[in-house]
Amino acid sequence: MMNHTIAPLYAALCAYERNRHISLHVPGHKDGNVFDKEADNHFYSILKIDATEVSGLDDLHHPAEVIAEAQEMAADAFGAAETFFLIGGSTAGNLAAALTLCAPGDTILVQRNAHKSIFNGLLLAGARPVFITPYTEPDTQVATGISATHVKVALKKYPSAKAVWITNPNYYGMGQNVAEIAEACHQAGIPLIVDEAHGAHFSQALNVPDSALKAGADLVVQSTHKMLPAMTMASMLHIQGTRIPREKLKRVLSMIQSSSPSYPLMASLDVARRYLVTKGRKQLVATVEKLEQARLDLTRKLEYLFIWSEIDGKTVYTRDPLKWVLTSRHFNVTGYQLLEWLEEMGIVAEMADLRNVVLVFPIHNEVTQIEKVINAVLQLEKKLANMPGERRTRNRTNAFFTRPGRLVKPSISLQEAFHFHKKRVPLEQAIGWCSAEMVIPYPPGVPLLVPGEKITEEHVNIIQEIKWAGGYFQGTSDETVEGIFVLVSL
Domain Orn/Lys/Arg decarboxylase C-terminal spans what residues (predicted)? Predict the structure, then answer.
């Protein structure tokens, strides 16, 4: 068994700091000796270990010493055959997966409600994605996952597909049956890729869902910084089995990751793994128990709000107990308004959409913090009870993704659409045209439109509704989305 009480990369950086050498190498702040004095109070300690590839610190792109050891320990902790540190977030991992598994023109099956980084990776690879439409959870109207049956139908229609790519869990903590999907993929002889950005803590306790690796996925990308205590952007890519060409993956990672990777970010992955194994797993069990009891007690007191929890085995197969999806039953109150009101009470939530606000709890949570959240929710409940307007028992149904399992193959690839001739038209006049850009409500970062996708009246209505409610977009040339670029022929 590995000794998870040590953090080899972090220890090497501490030794580097103690050396008190004269730095005549990059970075230019020279271990913090040349730096803005006003900001020095915050940055000083971290600058002392903001090093580069000097003797004793190893090289991310050719790891043979402490980085190699730290990655091996991470693989052991997360159940992978091999693990790679990412200093560009899960975005880097998703780009690497696409470029490793897809050549120009290759077909790949992709769950449609994927993060923008997956679409960007497919664009760079020149792949031809076939989108599988997900289910929609009825109470929250959130797009969830797909089923093994959907995958089997897609593989029968597109037998040349190089892989299947899913997202599990989604931003809201809702998961699908990854094990059954993995089995369907492996029966067809292709790998399953899983964007598990929000599930780095999965399988780390008995009262959280199983990880994608445990369910049999071949390549899994995790944002360690999202749900475990690593620094922002610090993530991991895990692989197992023989379906992933490892040497090609390593070459691709060296291409898309900086040749000067951040050592503090990498070290934060090392110590996050140590924290998780030595104390975090026990804390996770206790935190989930406290949160589940608090959710049940709070739910009994709510009439105008509810905290989603229903697992129906179809639209949702698993639920992350560290996430509370808080939804208003008041017709006139959006998730964006709930987010704003929570902020006024000192509670900064993770994200909001037209209906919901998402609260993300850490793996270790003090009872006093949970009590503050409960009090804030009860204040919101009182506020809604005193507002005029109709109360609903369920959300109105106007989900964007309809007909779960529907297969959509754009007539033009993402890469071709990116380089195609385009023009800008007013949004209302764009119906029937193919989009030339991504339209991405953010968060959660799932595109409503991707290049080459035909714009419908439904797209326009949802964009206008999000704008009205106070949401904003990424990916568009016009941040107001008053106009949009569309594809045109010469």
Answer: 394-465
